[in-house]
TrEMBL record:
This is Large ribosomal subunit protein bL19. Transmembrane segments: none annotated. This protein is located at the 30S-50S ribosomal subunit interface and may play a role in the structure and function of the aminoacyl-tRNA binding site. Keywords: Ribonucleoprotein, Ribosomal protein. It comes from the Bacteria. The lineage of its organism: Bacteria, Pseudomonadati, Pseudomonadota, Alphaproteobacteria, Rhodobacterales. One of its GO terms (molecular function) is structural constituent of ribosome. It comes from Poseidonocella pacifica.
Length: 127
């Protein structure tokens, strides 16, 4: 392992975050800490993960898309953000692409993603 990968692995270990195994096409629920004035609460943001960037590293991020009141809303989350309380995989999607940007133009039935029923977690990761 080279020096940069070693330092990045140490940083991830020091953060102590439990990131589940998910990819583009999965429906995920992100518990995001919202601060309003002096009060802080956790707000769930549930939608389809349409992309992952920079892998599992410290600089990694993912984009979640949901339909809210008939309008498409996308949000980009840093993977190791301190404001993320939890990430839960709701459904596993069967897709053939890494980036699902085509969902932006689709509505209704054409925007559906088939569910994976025979999912096997990667070795070393439990989901």
């Amino acid at each position: 392992m080279d020096l940069i990968a070693t330092l990045e692995a140490e940083q991830i270990a020091s953060l102590g975050k439990d990131i589940p195994d998910f990819k583009a096409g999965d429906t995920i629920r992100v518990g995001y800490k919202v601060t309003e004035g002096t009060r802080s609460r956790v707000q769930n943001y549930e939608g389809v993960c349409i992309s992952r960037k920079n892998g599992d590293g410290v600089a990694g991020s993912f984009t979640v898309r949901k339909i809210s009141f008939g309008e498409g809303v996308e949000r980009i989350f840093p993977l190791y953000s301190t404001n993320i309380e939890s990430i839960t995989v709701v459904r596993r999607g069967r897709v053939r692409r890494a980036k699902l940007y085509y969902l932006r133009e689709r509505r209704g039935k054409s925007a559906r993603i088939a569910e994976v029923t025979n999912y096997k977690p990667k070795s070393g990761a439990e989901a």
